[in-house]
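Attaching the record inline, Q. Sequence:
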Amino acid sequence: MIREGKVKVHLVIDASIAYFLLSDKEENVSYSIHLLLAQLSEVLHASFYEPLLENDRNTEIDEIGKMLFFSVSHAPVSYFCARKSAFFDLDAGENYATLVEGSYASAKEKICSARMEYRVSGNIEILLNTVLPQISFFLTHAAEWLGHRDGLPESEFFPGSKLLGYLEVLELNLWLELFGRDLRKLYDTDDQFTAKNIFSLSRHVERILWTFQIFPWLMEDGTIYVTVPFGDDLAALPVDL
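Structure, as predicted:
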């Protein structure tokens, strides 16, 4: 909301949070306080970091970057909030890890189904309308896990550190470290919270697209061409297609 030329941020608190604050169960109280801290961190982000972009609106971005950025647009603030609130609930990493694993599994199921429909319809737009939101969920939760880890005292093991083993099987463990590096740089290095660096996060969307055998290309005329090799689809297709 903009009032008198200034951006105003409102915090809307669900009644269940207040209910948990009054709970006799310690885990409910911890959950609600941790969530409140994350929401307050979002206010800090909107008040301090986002205004830095007001004079940084002329950054050029190609058509692929524009298409993919939606899927990673929530990652910076999700990383920041999880990092700032990590000190209060050291065990939250377990929840974040579960969300990352669950969102990838869900994405795989829905994208595989959408690929099969694409083989019949040939409509790439419908396919991408399924794929990109699913990748957004995965990247947002991955950013939360990374932020939580960076907000903890340095340690090789912490609740939720098992995620690295899960991603290693998918050959995404090294990618996760690169994603974390790019998010960390936005906040740990002076003058790096820029539109250029934020838009550059789109390359991480492209990296996850590769795991689902979807490859966007920028043509010489500036348009986008997306290739979707048959891969594992061929064995699952009806014989009469």
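Residues 50 and 193 are 9 Å apart (CA to CA). The chain has one domain: 61-236.

More tomorrow.
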